[in-house]
Amino acid sequence: MILPSYLKRKMEHKEGSKAKRMKSTTVQHWDRDIVCLPQQYHKSSSNTIPFPRGCSRVHLGKSGLIGKIHLSSTMTVNEVAGEIRSVFSKAMNGCKDFPFVFLQSTGCGSRSLTLPSVSTSFSWTPQMVARLGSVKQPIYILAQQHLATYCEVRSCKFSLVSA
Length: 163
What we know:
The chain is an alpha+beta fold.
């Protein structure tokens, strides 16, 4: 025979454990590669930008425009932007508050990036930023600031871009 006190304890245990699960939130962490394309990299009026490959990619690395960031689901939008800016501030001539926009792939297997159309009230959360890149693909941003020291790659030879 099952006593009523046993059933009561069993129900309290179930409810208590469920409440604990609902209250506890798992903090997610992501480490991602990130590439900052200087403003002059986007030359056309279209919204598509080719992926940097070969010599162009090597030159971005030499210019300090490839890095790694750490994101956490507890970060605010401003903390995400600060983390990104801290990686590229030296390459951006010491500017710690340079404006940038996130880029996303135009589709599966695509070889180009696009400027996503977002509303004025839209904010990039850490989860959304982490999903822009993957284990195989970095996160791309486009600096909205001209970088005078960045050289354009022409046939694997580096030459200064005229201002």
